[in-house]
Structures are given as C-alpha cells and as structure tokens.
Amino acid sequence: MTRGRRAYLGDPMLYAFDEGPDNGAYYEDYGDQGTSGRIFVSDEDWNSPNLAWTWCLDSDTPNASIECFIQAWNCPLRTYNQDREVLWRPQAYSGLPSYTIQILSNLDVKADFAHIDDLAGFLVKTIDPPEVSENKELNFISDHISSNEIAALLEKYSHREVEKSIMPLEAMRRVWKNKEEVPEDLKRKTRPDLRGNGQDVFAFSYCEDVKTSPAYGRYISLSVSLSLLSGANALVRPDGVGRLPALGWNTWNAFGCDIDASKVLTAAEETINLGLKDAGYEYINIDDCWSVKSGRDPNTKRIIPDSAKFPDGISGVASKIHDLGLKVGIYSSAGTETCAGYPASLGYEKIDAESFAEWGIDYLKYDNCGVPTNWTDTYTHCVPDNSNGSKFPNGTCPDISNPAPTAYDWSSSNTAQRYNAMRDALLGVNRTILYSLCEWGQADVNTWGNGTGNSWRTTGDITPDWSRIVEIANENSFLMNYADFWGYPDPDMLEVGNGNLTLEENRAHFALWAAMKSPLIIGTALDSINEEHLAILKNKPLLSFHQDPVIGRPAYPYKWGYNPDWTFDPAHPAEYWSGPSSTLGGTLVLMFNSEDSAKHRTAVWSEIPELKDSAEKGSGYRVTEIWTGEDLGCVKDQYDVELQSHDIAALVVGESC
C-alpha cells in the first residue's frame, strides 16, 4: 500500500487504473486539481480476470497523505510499494463469499474473512476500547453484504447504536483499463450528499470479468455511537471480564448438594497444585444448596448461608480463595426457589446482588427453577433437546404447543425480563460479577442472551453419559454463529473424569467444548482425578484456541461426515470442524468418529475453508498433532487417521510448505 501527496479534495475518491511506467499501473485523479499518485501492480495481477477496486480517501486537511488500498474478492491481487515489496495479498476462499476489508483511516488495519460474523467482529475491534463514551466513524468498502446487514452485525457484536450512510450503487461502475475508453458521463459523479460540498466522486474498477454476476462495491460510512445500548453493560466491561469464555470448576457435577467449605477449598488448592490455575482456570464456583432452606433473614431479607456447611460464611470461603489468586462463584435462580428447593432471587435481585458483592463473589450462575405462573412465558420456544431424533425432525418442533407468532421478539418475554432484572442488579453493585445464564435454551435466548449475560445455556443439564454429551454437542453445533467476544452459548459444564466415559469419549467431549469456545467449567473431584483426565483438561493447544484474544469466533463444522451436511442428529453430530487461531499460528482442525466402531477419518485441505485457497494451488501444510504434540511434518493434500469409537483427532494446520 502506498501513500501519495496531493491537493485537498475533501471527499472519498475512487480512482481508475491505467497502464503506467515500470510495467506497473498508476491511479489518476480525474478531479479538478488534476494531480496523480502511483500504486504499483504486477503484470500478473494487472491481467487478472477478476474484480477489484482501488479506493483513496483524503483526510480533512490540505496536502495530507492520500490513504489508498486495493480491494479484492476471490482475486489473486497483490499490492506493492515503490520498491516492489509485497504489502498485502488478500486470501481468497474459493466457492465462498470472502469479506475482505481495510479500514481507510488506518492502512495497517486490514483483514479478510470467510464468515460474515468474523467481519463484524473485526470491525467491532477497530472501535475499541468499548468503554470509551464517544462517537467514531468507520469508513470501508464491502461486498456481498448490505449496509443494513453490516449495521445489524455491528450492533449485535458491539452493543452500540449504529447510524449508517451509503454511497448509492449507481455510483459504482465497471472500469476500463484504458482511461480513454471511459465514457465522459462516468468520469465524474458529483455526490454533494456525502459532506454537502459538491466535490467529485469516481467509481471505477479495473478487472473485466463481470459478465455473469457483476459485483458492485459499496462505500459505507458507519457512525458508531459508543454510548452503550440499554442493558449491554453486562457484556462489555472496562476490566474485560466476560470477553473470553470462562475457565473454572463447579461443585455440582461432582458433589450435587453434598457440599461444604472443605470441599470447595480443596478444589481451590488442587487447582493450584495440579497446574490448572497456570493453564488458565480461575473460577471456583459453589452451585446449589449453599444456604439454609428455611427462608431469608426476616429483617434484612438476605439469603442466609448454611453455617453447618460454611462456618465462616460464603465471604470466609471467598477470602481464602482470593488469597490463592483465584476467583469465586455462587449460584441462584430466577425463580422463588432453586432447583434443589432453596431460596432463590426472583423479586430480591438487588438485595442478593448486594450480598454477593459484599461477600466477594466474582461469578453468578443463575438457574431457571421455581418460576411462578405469573412469570411464565406467553409462548413456547422450540428447544430440540431430546435423544429421540424423530421427535425433532432436523431440529424442528412440529408438535410444539402455543408457538410464538412469526417475528416475535423474545427479548420482551417474561424469561428475558427475569434475567434482565438480575443483570441490572449486578451492574448496580461496586464489583464486577460475571453473569452466567442457565435457562436451558428457553425463550430463544440466543437472540438476546449476549445483551443480558456473558454466557447462556442452550440445553437442559448434561450427564456423564455419552449419548447425552453428543446430543448436546449436536444441538450446540448449530448455534456457533452466536459465539464471539463477550458472549458464548453454553452447552453446560464438563463431565471429563465422571461416570463411565472412555478415555476417547472424555477427549472428544473436551475437544468439542473447547473448539466451540464454550465456558469450560470442570465438574469432577480434583483431589482424585487421574493423570489422563488431567492432561485432557490442561491441553495447551486447545486452551490456547479457546482463549484466543484476537479471534473471538469458535470453530465451525465444515463437513458432517456420517450424515449429509446440516443434518440434525442427536447421535451423530458434525464430525469435521475448523477454526482460525492467532495463538496457534494456523487452523484448528478436528476429525471426530461418532460411530460405535473404529473408523478412518480424512481431513482434505481443499475442503477446509481456512485452507482451501492455498490447498487448491498444491500447497502442503505443516501439521502438529494436538494430543501428543507430534510434528507430523509437511502434509500434502490430506491427512488420514484411524480413530477408535467416539475418539477425536485434533490438529494444528500451520504454515504452507
């Protein structure tokens, strides 16, 4: 990317390419000032039969540097500086729309994506830090996506008001390589509506292959108001809590109601001793049954911790956990009673939030039991949560009673209001408390959960049974587009180390949960965990992918394997997954055997979205096996492995070779 010097124009400008000296090409300003600059493009790229744009934007000060870039989709285009050094080559995803973007105000900020949600996440990151209260303008070119879609995605991921303006599509025209062939009426387009000053705007591209489905670039200017939308504070906090999925331990799967301070503190100490804290696990969470069952304090109306279980109260346990450098969580429910029949928080949200903050709580798991009839929802939402696949053909609920009308806004439901009440109470205390919604996927929580909490349960409870684990994995696999920074669908806590799961099943369970960027909350007794299960929970590459500070999206299924793609099957979830990782320096690839006997599984590089472009050109990749850490060397075309029943292969596919 090069920068030229020119006179002040004031408006965003598009420039046509023409053949220039040095076997390159240059952009020329057709405006009144008649100045020009140069971007060098190779002969190979110059002759490319694909569509691209050059876009130049002046700053608001005279004689400022022009900021120019070339924009391409599925186009082998490179940009060079005057020393012929390659500055940027967008990656193309053959067969998929590729969203390649560069922010005009900062030429160092550029990226390309195969998924539209990733594009939105990238744009959101350009307007960080999120806690700043100011307006910012984001100018960029996009294609295959409307301004309304971009605005909606930005609001979804940034939780901010978005105002947009867009240059009409009529302003975008095909461009000829020879400027003499450009019709006079296309050389100048006055767009006084951009800034009201009547300056000239040009819209040209230089590639020719636009015969079947012409692509039109869109100059989009989005004014993003950083004042937070109502209720979005629960997601975007100044201290970063909730930006990444949680890592921790919880009492329930191991002990149920049989809990006390000793067991909780033992788990905290073992988190240190076993190296789990060093691996990133930080929350020690007390689930149900921590209070007295008889009711609240008659004077203060506070929930009373059970002194027989917690002689020093919850605050005493929290203090000791904090002294270990860990955080502590607590449990309640958005009803009048918890699932085990203890006092819950509906109607007492402010009092309980104040108690939790006073005790030093850092995490709240908020369940969905004890809901009185006046707080139930008017309509029923489809949650296809049952091992009987015939009851939910391809994830639908044909027999659902009282379904909601089309386009019903579930954020107005009683369920959403019950959870919002606790969100608001937590935001009102002088302590940051991560908010984990446990409402079992009801009330279409995926459409409003990330405006209420940091994670939200998508199904009913997990059990240490293989059939239940794959059933939940299947359901959650269809919700991956909802996961990103500040909000994560939650398929429930881990059962690694529990029940009669085989080693392979434990491994597959953890790998899928980590790849989906689900909260990873350990649910086994740490003082008796075996080395194999501990090694699974501490797997560095999977935890590194899970906690990626740059890429928020999880891995996505790219092929179902056992079933045709997009099949909803409680016994056989999607078997092939991939996701980009800045921390691994490559792509995470999973191959899963959902069958009851040993089977071969093959990862074909040209089928994987993140690898497809280079693979089709014959590139191999350096591959590392995640479970053993073995360097598999340069692997061409594909990688085949035999997997035992219910096992999973996990790979890091790195640089091309």
UniProtKB/TrEMBL annotation:
GO biological process: carbohydrate metabolic process
Enzyme class at the top of the EC tree: hydrolase
Biological role stated in the UniProt entry: Hydrolyzes a variety of simple alpha-D-galactoside as well as more complex molecules such as oligosaccharides and polysaccharides.
Span of domain Alpha galactosidase C-terminal: 573-652
Taxonomy of the source species: Eukaryota, Fungi, Dikarya, Ascomycota, Pezizomycotina
Reaction equation(s) it catalyzes: Hydrolysis of terminal, non-reducing alpha-D-galactose residues in alpha-D-galactosides, including galactose oligosaccharides, galactomannans and galactolipids
Any one GO CC term of the record: extracellular region
Keywords: Disulfide bond, Glycoprotein, Glycosidase, Hydrolase, Secreted, Signal
Primary location: secreted
InterPro entries, sorted: Aldolase_TIM, GH, Glyco_hydro_27, Glyco_hydro_27/36_CS, Glyco_hydro_b, Melibiase_C, NAD(P)-bd_dom_sf
Compartments in which it is found: Secreted
Keyword Disulfide bond: yes
Molecular function GO terms recorded: alpha-galactosidase activity
Name of the molecule in the record: Alpha-galactosidase
Protein family per UniProt: Belongs to the glycosyl hydrolase 27 family.
Pfam families, A to Z: Melibiase_2, Melibiase_C
Enzyme Commission code: 3.2.1.22
